[in-house]
Amino acid sequence: MDCLFCKIVAGAIPSHKVYEDENVYAFLDIYPCAEGHTIVLPKKHFGKFTDMSEEDAATLFASVNRIAKTVSETLGLEGMNIGINNGEIAGQTVPHVHVHIIPRRAGDGEGN
Ligand code: 5GP
Ligand code: ZN
C-alpha cells in the first residue's frame, strides 16, 4: 500500500476524522484553505474521479452530500465550495480520489 490516503483510511497515518461509513472516510485537510476544510475519500482506491464507475461516483457523492450538510449545520455556514481536482494537470497532488469541502465566510475572498 503506497498511497497516502489509503494509509489514512487504514489508520496507518493519523488524521482528524470528521465522518466514516462503509464507503467513505472524511477528515480535516492538514493545510486548510478555511477552518473546517474537509476531504472526503472513497475507501476503495481510485486514482482519479474519471477512473470511477457512475455507480461508485454516485455512492461517493451521496456521502459528500450528507457530510456537506453536517459541516454546514455544525459550523453555521451560508455556503461552501465542493470540488475535485481531477488529474495532476488540474492540481491533484494526491492520486487517490478526494472531494474538497471548503467552508466560505463573508469577506474570505477579499485581497485574493
Ligand atoms: P489535491 O491538491 O490533491 O486536490 O488535495 C490534496 C489535499 O490533501 C491538500 O489540500 C493537502 O493539504 C491535503 N493533504 C496532503 N497530505 C495530507 C495529510 O497527510 N493529511 C491530511 N489531513 N491532509 C493532507
Ligand atoms: Zn489510495
From TrEMBL:
Example GO biological process: nucleotide metabolic process
Motif stretch (Histidine triad motif): 96-100
Top-level division of the source organism's lineage: Archaea
Domain HIT residue range list: 4-111
Signal peptide: none
Protein biosynthesis recorded as keyword: no
One Gene Ontology term of the molecular function aspect: hydrolase activity
Keyword annotations from UniProtKB, A to Z: Hydrolase
Active site: H98
Protein name, entry field: HIT family hydrolase, diadenosine tetraphosphate hydrolase
Span of the entire protein shown here: 1 to 112 of 137
